[in-house]
Amino acid sequence: MSTHRIAVIAGDGIGKEVMPEGLRVLRAAAARFGLQLEFTTFAWANCDYYREHGQMMPADWFDQLKGFDAIYFGAVGWPDAVPDHISLWGSLIKFRREFDQYVNLRPVRLMPGVPCPLAGKKPGDIDFYVVRENTEGEYSAVGGRLFEHTERELVLQEAVFTRKGVDRILQFAFELARSRPKKHLTSATKSNGIAISMPYWDERVKAMAAHYPDVRWDQYHVDILAARFVLSPERFDVVVASNLFGDILSDLGPACAGTIGIAPSANLNPERTLPSLFEPVHGSAPDIYGQNIANPVAMVWSGAMMLDFLGKGDARYVQAHDAIMHAIETVLVQGPRTPDMGGTASTTEMGMAIAALL
Amino acid sequence: MSTHRIAVIAGDGIGKEVMPEGLRVLRAAAARFGLQLEFTTFAWANCDYYREHGQMMPADWFDQLKGFDAIYFGAVGWPDAVPDHISLWGSLIKFRREFDQYVNLRPVRLMPGVPCPLAGKKPGDIDFYVVRENTEGEYSAVGGRLFEHTERELVLQEAVFTRKGVDRILQFAFELARSRPKKHLTSATKSNGIAISMPYWDERVKAMAAHYPDVRWDQYHVDILAARFVLSPERFDVVVASNLFGDILSDLGPACAGTIGIAPSANLNPERTLPSLFEPVHGSAPDIYGQNIANPVAMVWSGAMMLDFLGKGDARYVQAHDAIMHAIETVLVQGPRTPDMGGTASTTEMGMAIAALL
Ligand SMILES: CC(C)[C@H](C(=O)O)[C@@H](O)C(=O)O
Ligand SMILES: CC(C)[C@H](C(=O)O)[C@@H](O)C(=O)O
């Protein structure tokens, strides 16, 4: 297998602190399993760049990145300097849309050694995927204001769902469910309240399910589904949801499994026509930045997901993925741990400990 | 104080099972504290009525109800017979909008005797309000389909936020926060993803906060806020949110506090120009209907909220409210309990036990 070219974008805040640990572990895995990974760092797509240039990225960002096999991404956002909708729409959301990374795949797993906020749960009890639509839906800058600065002021906010967009994410989710032992899919909507788009989503689920007679499926309104994540997380296997609902459920799920500090995600272009992007679920966390105490596991785990995707079943990549996961689990159990997990280790110490196990 | 006229609408499913218990307790409280409550039952706003008449309510529903002081409401929805968006838009959502019940007030409280799914929490640790905007926002039937039944099919879904709608719910929430010992308000938005409406909400929060220098406030993206409900529910006091986010957070909150089976809500028209509505947070639960095992506490607690609102500080009403809450707590601790709480009691037995304590 040839060299894989990976674009590295650390972004803002703790993105800059966890990225070196992600790279440290990937380099260790590459050395051990003979993978050819070539990293190229980009100093844009962050709020410092915005302050200097008035935009998050150079005009030719698409051309600069499109030839890479993957983007390894930290976190973007520094709300004191740049409003979040500007920094995110100018970087991450652009990548997801323009590189057509229509699947946001987010494992929710209670890992050994991680204290669980839910009473009486043990590793194995919580182990599912949130499959989030990643390019359309509620995430939208379409709309506007009327009667601005008057008492009659009014805001219209459009959400857009296309058959193509809905069907392809449902298909991915049903395929994933089919590949898993439980073969169970749950769809999240809110069709009793949101009267146009959500009944449409329900209709498409029903149509898609007809092609997967071997997959059991159900659907929940997102409010009660959120409650069930807390009350009976064991019952989920593959949860498919719109951009917004997937966003909420994929923060809530990892919280139920202990911490969002370790949750990874893959923004996939399954056709591989353009680069996919791998990033922690957590954000740039301005409140803890600068202390080198951020938990690097989400970044490292996202790297393992990247290897899995790049390797397409190549044994060395599978081994590298599994070895990283094993190293993560070992360190979660025996330490060192960052403060969010009750330890006193630094980001660097935890990253080095994981790398040392490879 | 004169007679209070209360419209009783049981609705569908377990709404029909918990309503008699709610009424039983209210009647007991009225007898003990000398309240004049007059109940009038309506046999519409349910899916049986829809099957007979092709609509959820008679054409003159507004005129029939507008003179009541309050509506005591069970639950609506029977998705096997009537799609949820039809049954709900034809009843509950109409009430909320046309009676201008713009505040949906939902206490989230860990009660004594209720097993908490979160490890290590005890009564007192979780005690906050979700204040939900109840008339506009994401709950919308505005929008439509294009290119129907083709590959290009496309759905537009509009959300509408008005300055009046946003400001009045924020004002209610800030006033509530000011009245509480912690004086703390949290606003939920998602301004990094939903680029028009949510930054607007953030702006209005900032403007409103200027009038409440004594209230500490913060804002969270709803995804991380959902995670915080699980990881640190102690830190919340008053959480204000849009219609959709309030809906999600007010199912999630009660789940974190043990069960949505006991969570009440008040749909308030604070100006009292039209009736307010009091209902459980839970739905009609077709899966358990017909067994008389539904937990009646949410219905009973909603009744207590109704007395509190109707009484406007009148000592007898305050006493009745407090006595019902005390009776609920006593039964939660010593039983009898319905199966959702680990017991074997029926809905009726639990309701009778609460009423007997009055
Ligand atoms: C039944 C449904 C329309 C309703 C809502 O979403 O508002 C319910 O979930 C609630 O929270 O009262
Ligand atoms: C930063 C933000 C735009 C992003 C999202 O909402 O998609 C994040 O919360 C995530 O889940 O990846």
Automatic annotation (TrEMBL), chains A, B:
Gene Ontology molecular function, alphabetical: D-malate dehydrogenase (decarboxylating) (NAD+) activity; magnesium ion binding; NAD binding
Keywords, sorted A to Z: Manganese, Metal-binding, NAD, Oxidoreductase
Domain Isopropylmalate dehydrogenase-like residues, every copy: 5-354
EC number(s) reported in the record: 1.1.1.83
Catalytic activity field: (R)-malate + NAD(+) = pyruvate + CO2 + NADH
Classification via Pfam families: Iso_dh
Tagged with keyword Manganese: yes
Transmembrane segments: none
Cofactor: Mn(2+); Mg(2+)
NCBIfam families reported in the protein's UniProt record: TTC
Family: Belongs to the isocitrate and isopropylmalate dehydrogenases family.
Name of the protein: D-malate dehydrogenase (decarboxylating)
Species annotation: Pseudoduganella guangdongensis
